[in-house]
Write a structure and sequence with these properties.
CATH class: Alpha Beta
Radius of gyration: 17 Å
Protein name: Oxidoreductase N-terminal domain-containing protein
CATH superfamily: Medium-chain alcohol dehydrogenases, catalytic domain
Number of domains: 1
GO molecular function: oxidoreductase activity, acting on the CH-CH group of donors, NAD or NADP as acceptor
Oligomer: single chain
InterPro entries: ADH_N_2 (IPR041694), GroES-like_sf (IPR011032), MDR_fam (IPR045010)
Distance between the termini: 51 Å
Keywords: Oxidoreductase
Pfam families: ADH_N_2 (PF16884)
Helix content: 10-25%
CATH architecture: Alpha-Beta Complex
Length: 156
């Protein structure tokens, strides 16, 4: 039996598509056993989440840069957490990682584009602003869309 078999995982699930403002009836909190990482996976204990504007679009069921959230799925949000169990060479217990944790206490992560280990930072809130969706939006917006040139001034 692994450590994760003793952990409880609170999750917020999408119960129905919001009509107008999101209401408590649109979601449901459930408690399940924490997932157990398979070979090549690690278990992340979520410490902070960022609920950004994109999260609302995922609730609507419309396609976007990520698939729409399906009814019954964990509400998708970006987060940061600590690896508490690992069967993956990319992460060791104690590592801080940013990823799409969802609104839940524990998430399974893999060595992929969506899971970024954070090294050298001790303030998870600062990390969320830099490496979370807001920071990523700013970075890719400037690099891919704005493309500032030497001598230009950028005002934020």
């Amino acid at each position: 039996m692994t450590d994760s078999a003793h952990r409880q995982n609170r999750q917020v699930l999408l119960r129905r598509r919001p009509d107008g403002l999101v209401s408590p009836d649109d979601t449901e909190m459930v408690t399940t056993d924490a997932p157990v990482p398979a070979e090549g996976e690690a278990l992340l204990r979520t410490t902070y989440v960022g609920i950004d504007a994109a999260a609302r679009t995922w609730l609507d069921g419309e396609p976007g840069y990520l698939p729409a959230l399906q009814l019954g799925e964990v509400v998708r949000v970006a987060g940061i957490g600590e690896v508490v169990e690992s069967r993956c060479d990319a992460y060791k217990v104690g590592d801080m990682v940013t990823t799409l944790t969802g609104l839940q206490d524990y998430a399974i992560i893999r060595d992929d584009l969506f899971s970024t280990p954070v090294v050298g930072y001790t303030d998870p809130l600062a990390v969320m602003s830099i490496y979370g969706p807001t920071g990523a939006t700013a970075y890719f917006g400037m690099k891919g869309v704005g493309k500032p040139q030497a001598g230009e001034t950028v005002v934020v």
